[in-house]
TrEMBL record:
Compartmental location: Membrane
Residue ranges crossing the lipid bilayer per the database entry: 742-762
Protein name, per record: Toll-like receptor 13
Native source organism of the sequence: Echeneis naucrates (Live sharksucker)
SMART domains given in the database record: LRR_SD22, LRR_TYP, TIR
Primary gene name: tlr21
Length: 977
């Protein structure tokens, strides 16, 4: 297996580019983890070249969003590999230039969004390959014109949006789209058109919606039939467009016409136009007073009998007098008076004669109160929707809606309501949706909603309610959604939530709850599916808290994130007991110091768990903490302080698809833990201090060669210890040496060294040491010089002896060789060695400055390290230089067994004869000693060059101490000062 890994890495090292492709990660994009490789988002990247952003995306991509990047340029063939793209969004970038063939091969593309860029020019054939394009947006760019034939090949276009540019030539636009038989919507708002003049072209019959608002139109200038098939026409905010511009233009097909903030007189326009009055939006037409409204109504009544919708918003209307709209055609649908200056609607009394309306809107006005309508004589039996949003309403009186009992949707949100009378909503027995959010309510009473028993949605978010009193919701048995978030609720009275037996979603976030009262949930314990408790004051001192959710068996969504002021610190070990149906759990932004190993045991149906920033410091996740979460598909544990990622902790998450581990403190990640997640498809490990060492070599290989798991922005992950290097390509070759072979060879070498070293020490110690001295002498050029000076030797002989034999040398050897007429000059260490010089240098100099070396051999001599060195040097000259320079004198008889370990000396003894000092046991010691000295003198007089016959006949025995212990019985005669 190890050899296989080495081979794989060798191939990868040789083909580094292929390694980038094989890894399942993208340089600038993230694959939607639930899209099966079809949807990609490339957001907030600093890359400036579009090709670089998308070059590594797979051909399976269908939806691609490139948003808020620094891309300025789209080169040719940028998307040539993405031939299956159907939706391409490139809005909010810095695009300036697009090459002519940038979208080549995108035959399947249906939607192209290039809005919010800096594009000022388009190439004529830019969209030629986009045969299936249906929607295109070029809004918010800097286009001054469209090149001819820009849409020649895009015959399936349905929607073209080019709003907010600098276009001036409408004829050019009309010509570009005239052949598009499927075009339904053309948006040219916020450009610089001054007219709709066109040359011998007509708009497609399919074109239903044309938006030309916020231009500089001075006239329409088009043929009478040019707009005959348009159904929606927006000409608003063309402030200089006059009434006469519409003379004779065919508007018979129009369903909606907006003329807001133009210079058109609406009455005059209706008189000269064939448009149906019921299809005109009268907003922003300067109908400031009742007389103008009445005049309009009378005119409308002459043309139609009923109106489905009458929009009079943003006209500056201040007062609504009684019977104001009585002269209008019957309004059967919506009446919109929003964005006027209305201070009161007076129980809608001004609508006398218009009691069949279904919807009334008076939003963004200046209403200050809603008075009681108990005695109103105008009765609205068909009114179903009433909206007073975005006003300044302070109070709502009793029976405020008494004359409109069939209201189903009431919107009073985003006001300043501080007082809601107990009977303000009296009579609204059909009410289904009530919006009271974003007001100043402080109290709710047990009869506030007494008549609203059909209510299903009640929104009280962002008020100042602090207590929910008993019986407040007692009659709301059909309520399914209750939003109390953003209030100041500290507690519920025991029966505060009684009556809510159908409640499905309860939002209590952003309140001041300090505990979760299990008793208040008993009423809806069998129906509640969503409970939002985030951003409260919930905290626990011990982990022995009983589960407050024991009976909420159908709860599927629970939010406990961001408890104030510093987050929840203790999470009781059985806190979630009973939540068998829970699918989503949020615990983010808390300060939990420990997650008990059994805390999630009951959450067997959990699909999503968010633990981002839930814990304080370094989090030590206990083994088994996720053991029962086998249904979990998404786990978010960002910025949790996780230090270790192990199989023991995450090993049971067998259905996990998405894992967000970014911004933790992991230096390494165990690959076996990742391999235990068989369904993993999305992994985010950014902003972790991952070390680029052998500890992560397997992780690097896994991230690059796992075709199932997308590692988010892997190629941007930096090494902790080397910020200039990237994690994906740090060098791991040294980490994959075959450890088995390495250990085998290492062990073999160690064993060999331990076995051979003692043997080498015994056998070669002196040879090595001698070689060192010889090399040192040769290196310093002494050897050669001494050899050259042999003929002029300073001494006749160098005497090598042990200090214990010094008496014999001084009393016998010295007198017989230097005295008695012999006249030999001897070199003795105590007399002739140079003071202060290295001992070895003195020995080498003595041996090579003497014609002969006389070794006085005794048992003590054999045990001397220095004597061994001297005989080594002399024997080198004997054997290697072929010089007869060595004389052996044995003072005592030494057996062959004792000489067996001195191989060099035995070699000399076998090659040459040696002298034996006659001992006292000799029959005639005087004559023997005389003969000894004569033989020694004769040997001294011989030349040093060896002849061949002599080499063959004479034997000489050496005594080399190769196995001797270091400096044992060192010869003290060389310890000179």
């Amino acid at each position: 297996m190890n050899k296989l890994i080495v081979n794989v890495l060798a191939v990868n090292a040789a083909l580094g580019a292929i390694q980038l492709i094989s890894g399942y990660s993208y340089n600038n994009c993230i694959e939607d983890p639930y899209s099966n490789g079809t949807a990609f988002n490339c957001k907030n990247r600093k890359e400036v070249n579009m090709f670089a952003i998308v070059k590594d995306l797979p051909s399976s991509a269908i939806n691609l969003t490139i948003f808020k990047t620094y891309a300025e340029y789209i080169p040719n063939y940028s998307f040539q590999n993405l031939t299956n793209l159907q939706l391409l969004k490139m809005d909010n970038n810095y695009l300036k230039t697009i090459d002519e063939f940038a979208f080549q091969n995108l035959h399947q593309l249906q939607t192209l969004n290039l809005s919010c860029n800096d594009i000022s020019e388009l190439k004529p054939s830019l969209f030629n390959d986009l045969h299936n394009l249906t929607n295109i947006s070029l809004a918010y760019n800097k286009l001054k014109q469209l090149p001819g034939g820009i849409f020649a090949s895009t015959l399936k276009l349905n929607i073209i949006i080019i709003r907010q540019n600098f276009l001036t030539n409408f004829s050019e636009i009309a010509k570009s789209v005239s052949h598009l038989k499927t075009l339904r919507k053309l948006d040219l708002s916020s450009n610089n058109f001054t007219s709709l003049i066109h040359s011998n072209v007509s708009l497609p019959k399919s074109l239903a919606s044309l938006y030309i608002s916020k231009n500089n139109l001075l006239t329409l200038g088009c043929k009478d039939s040019f707009l005959q098939y348009i159904k929606v026409l927006d000409l608003a905010y063309n402030s200089r467009l006059p009434t006469k511009a519409f003379q004779g233009v065919d508007f018979s097909h129009l369903n909606y016409l907006r003329l807001r903030s133009t210079n058109v007189s609406i009455v005059e326009f209706l008189n000269i136009s064939n448009v149906s009055p019921g299809h005109v939006d009268f907003s922003g037409m300067r109908l400031k007073n009742g007389s103008l409204v009445s005049e309009l109504c009378r005119l409308l009544k002459t043309k139609v009998k009923t109106l489905k919708r009458l929009s009079l918003n943003d006209n500056g209307i201040v007062n609504l007098t009684n019977y104001l709209l009585s002269s209008c055609p019957e309004i059967t649908g919506e009446l919109d008076l929003s964005r006027n200056r209305l201070k009161s609607t007076s129980c809608l009394n001004f609508l006398k004669g218009q009691t069949n309306i279904k919807s009334f809107n008076a939003e963004h006005c200046v209403l200050k109160s809603l008075p009681s309508c108990r005695h109103s004589k105008v009765y609205f039996k068909n009114l179903e929707e009433l909206s007073y949003r975005y006003n300044r309403i302070l109070s709502v009186s009793s029976f405020a809606f008494n004359n409109m009992p069939h209201i189903m949707t009431l919107k009073l949100n985003i006001n300043t309501i501080a007082f809601l009378d107990r009977k303000a909503l009296k009579g609204l027995k059909s009410l289904v949706t009530l919006r009271l959010d974003n007001n100043l309510l402080t109290d709710l009473f047990n009869d506030t909603f007494a008549d609203n028993f059909r209510l299903q949605v009640l929104n009280l978010r962002n008020n100042h309610i602090s207590v929910i009193f008993n019986g407040t919701f007692l009659r709301l048995g059909n309520l399914s959604i209750l939003d109390l978030g953003g209030n100041k609720i500290t507690h519920f009275e025991p029966s505060g939530l009684d009556g809510l037996q159908s409640l499905s979603k309860l939002y209590l976030d952003g309140n001041n709850l300090k505990q979760i009262d299990t008793s208040i949930y008993r009423v809806f314990q069998n129906t509640l599916t969503t409970l939002d408790l985030q951003s409260n004051l919930i905290n626990f001192l011990t982990d022995n808290q009983q589960s407050p959710f024991m009976n909420l068996s159908k709860l599927s969504d629970l939010k406990l994130d961001g408890q104030r002021p510093h987050g929840m610190t203790v999470l009781p070990q059985h806190f979630f007991r009973g939540l068998y149906s829970l699918t989503s759990l949020y615990l983010t932004n808390n300060n939990i110091y420990r997650l008990p190993p059994n805390v999630f045991d009951d959450l067997t149906s959990l699909h999503f768990l968010a633990l981002d920033r839930c814990c304080v410091g370094v989090t030590q996740l206990q083994p088994g903490v996720f053991k029962n979460l086998r249904s979990l598909t998404k786990l978010a544990v960002e910025d949790m302080g996780i230090q270790n990622f192990s199989k023991e902790v995450f090993g049971n998450l067998t259905k996990l698809r998405s894992l967000q581990l970014n911004r933790n403190v992991m230096q390494n990640i165990q690959v076996d833990a990742l391999e235990s997640l068989p369904k993993l498809h999305y992994l985010d490990i950014r902003n972790n201090p991952l070390s680029c060492t052998c500890q992560n070599s397997l992780l690097q290989n896994w991230t690059q060669n796992n075709p199932q798991v997308q590692v988010v922005y892997l190629y941007s992950v930096q090494c902790q210890d080397h910020s200039k290097f990237k994690f994906y390509n740090f060098d791991v070759k040294v980490c994959y040496i075959d450890l088995g072979e390495y250990m085998f060879f290492s062990t073999a070498v160690v064993i060999f060294l331990f076995s051979v070293t003692p043997l080498l020490h015994v056998k070669l110690y002196w040879k090595i040491k001698y070689s060192y001295y010889v090399f040192n002498a040769w290196f310093s050029d002494r050897w050669r010089r001494l050899s050259e000076e042999e003929e002029n030797c300073k001494y006749d002989a160098f005497i090598s002896y042990n200090s214990s034999d010094e008496k014999w040398v001084m009393e016998h050897l010295l007198p017989n060789l230097e005295g008695n007429g012999s006249f030999f000059k001897l070199c003795l260490h105590h007399r002739d060695f140079e003071l202060g010089r290295d001992i070895v240098d003195n020995i080498v100099s003595a041996v090579y400055s003497s014609r002969k070396t006389i070794c006085v051999v005794s048992r003590n001599f054999l045990q001397s390290e220095w004597c061994s060195l001297e005989i080594q040097l002399a024997s080198y000259r004997l054997f290697d230089e072929h010089r007869d320079v060595l004389l052996l004198v044995f003072l005592e008889t030494i057996s062959d067994r004792q000489l067996s370990s001195y191989h060099r000396m035995r070699k000399v003894m076998l090659k040459k004869t040696y002298l034996q000092w006659p001992n006292s046991d000799c029959m005639n010691p005087g004559e023997a000693q005389k003969l000894f000295w004569n033989q020694l003198r004769r040997a001294m007089r011989k030349g040093s060059r060896l002849e061949t016959e002599e080499n063959e006949s004479e034997s000489f025995v050496t005594a080399k101490s190769e196995e001797y212990e270091d400096f044992k019985n060192s010869d003290e005669r060389y310890l000179l000062p």
